[in-house]
Amino acid sequence: MALTLRDALASARSVALVFENMDRDAPTARSTAADVLRAILAGNPQFLATWTIWGADAFDGRDRFFKGQKTYTETGRFAVNFFRDGDALRATADVTEESLKDEKESDFFYVPFRRGTAYVADPVLYSYTGREEDARFSVSLCVPVVAKGQALGVVGVDPAMDIVQATLDRDTPEEGISLLLDFLGHLVGGTLSLDHLGKSLEEAGVSKELVEAARRVREEGKGELVTAPLPGKAGTFLVALQPLSLGEGVPERWVLAYGVPEGVIAEKGAAPVRLVALAAVICLGLLGLGLFPLLRALVRPLRTASALAHRASTGDLSLSRGDFGGPRSDELGDLADALAVMVDSIRRMIKDLQSQGEALSGSADALAALSQESVAAAEEMRAGVESVAQRGDENRASLSRSGEAVRAGATQVDAVARVAEEGARRAEETAEMTERASEEVAQALAAVGAAQERTRLATERMETTAQSVAAIGDFVTTIRTIADQTNLLALNAAIEAARAGEAGRGFSVVAEEVRKLAEQSNDAAKEVESRMEALSTSTAGALDAIRLGDQVMGDATVRGNQARGVLGEALASSREIVRATREAAQAVTQHGKESQHIAQEIGHAEESTGETLTSLEGIRVAIAETTRSSEQVAQESSRIAEEADNMRELLGRFHTEARALE
């Protein structure tokens, strides 16, 4: 029974070891771990569930990427639970962050996680499917995953207690009872009553003496023998209690107890005691009366029985009822019958042990051979995995180099594409600038043409102005002539007025005024003549400048038309360059996209190869663990075979061929 639970605990330890040594940073690490749990459940029909719960970000540091995904908690914590639903294996998400807040109810996680050692939880009646009819009594065997002295998570297997109960049913004496108590003192198995499962001894109505004895055995680790009544049973029982260790590193002790009614013990032992007492009384009476013949008749059967018992103690079990003498109806006859039955029972038991020893030896030899074959097959698998892993490493390295080369080429292509695109953009800008320059030259030519027209008009006007200035000069000359004549006339009038004397005084004043006016007119004419000379000079210079400008604008028009033609040719060339550069840029860009796609595909192939290598590493670890387990099984099988041979040798000392009881 303890061996059954230890085997289940060993499975949990193996899974914890695999998780501890696997590459948890691999992209497929979580799915690989889940596959291991599923495989353990599939290969052990006695398990109801396999599960694992890890600390926050303790598995791979990527909980945030798994938020809201099925079977994980709300935070993405790695928590996976597989359970058996008939013949199917299913995953459940019954572990939540909210449920983990209750540390007492989640002792299966917190106890091993904090103390860093294995833990056997209190067995409970639980339905993994949620259906009441599927509820089974099970126990959680919990093993922490420890790395560098730090607990990272917990692995658990939940075997059904049915297998333990079957062992108890088989080993319990016919008239007796059995009890199995967990480390809390709860009844988790036995033949007392299935209604008491999960209850404490006090709740089951067990006597205080037995409760205290069970507590001492559980705490001190020493067996005890007590007499106590049991609920639902008549009389008192002699109960033997023994501590039960569930494996190395598990401090919790269970208690196994077997009880037999005292009445049965008294009944089985009454006949020999009664016979011995009667024989003693009879012997004393005969000695007192001196009836030695009768004494010899009583002592002879006792001596025969003693001699036969000595033969049986030396291994000679070939005795029959006739060897103890003829049938008798007294106590000596009862003694002979009891001894004959005892020898026959021992003989049958020895034969059964011999048969079981033969079967055990054969099974151990077959198991050892099978284990050796498993080791050889595992070695072949390991060699194959190593070869595949080596080729996978080579392929990954080759893919890595190819990916680097393609990515470098893609980078260069991207650079060329950017340069081509930039060239196309610059060519477009040049074409646009050329087109704008051509338009501006056209506008400038139009402006020059308009300026030439205005220059022609200005020339005509300036020529007209020059003619007007010349005419004004002639007119000014005429004015000066008139002013000189007027001045001369005024002088003559003044002379005449002086000759007239007093009568000509008034005329003299007029003559003087006329003279002054003539002088002023002459001065004004001189000023106008001076201004007109300057204006004539300016007009002539302006006319020369306008004519020169007209000539320059004519030359500029000719050159502008030539430049416009060159710009038109340059614009056509620029547009052709833009088209060619754009096509080149598009081709290079397409090539770059194809290179990037190839690089991505190579990257995916490299990742897939890495995932495959990670899976191979997990398989390699599992094969190594299987090899170690197979070697251990082979060694244990060899040891069992040796023990079976020893047992057969010991049992061979007994002579078991005998006549049937008469």
Q: How would you explain this protein's 3D organization?
A:
The chain is rod-shaped. The protein has 3 domains: 1-161, 2-Layer Sandwich (Beta-Lactamase), CATH 3.30.450; 164-268, PAS domain (Beta-Lactamase); 350-648, Helix Hairpins. The two termini are 40 Å apart. The protein has a 6-stranded antiparallel β-sheet, sandwiched between helices. Strands 10-9-13-12-11 form a 5-stranded antiparallel β-sheet. It has 662 residues and is α+β, with helices and mostly antiparallel strands. Strand 12 and strand 13 form a beta hairpin. It contains 10 helices and 13 strands. Mean pLDDT is 75; it is low at 269-296. Helix 7 (262-289) packs across helix 8. It has helices at residues 2-21, 29-42, 97-100, 107-115, 162-171, 208-220, 262-289, 292-313, 331-500, 505-651; strands at residues 47-54, 79-85, 88-92, 119-120, 124-126, 136-138, 141-147, 150-159, 177-181, 187-190, 224-229, 236-245, 253-261. 66% of the residues lie in helices and 12% in strands.
Briefly characterize the structure.
By secondary structure, the protein is of the alpha+beta class. It contains 10 helices and 13 strands.
What fraction of the residues are assigned to beta strands by DSSP?
A: 5-15%
CATH T-level fold name of the largest domain: Helix Hairpins
Supply the CATH architecture of the largest domain: Orthogonal Bundle
Helix fraction?
55-70%
Q: How many E strands? A: 13
The major β-sheet equals: 6 strands, antiparallel
Strand order of the largest sheet: 3-2-1-8-7-4
**Poorly predicted runs of 5 or more residues:** 269-296
Count of separate DSSP helical elements: 10
CATH superfamily membership of the largest domain, which one? Methyl-accepting chemotaxis protein
- Tell me the overall shape: rod-shaped
Calculate Rg over CA atoms: 64 Å
Order of helices and strands: HHEEEHHEEEEEHEEHEEEHHHH
Q: How many discrete domains?
A: 3
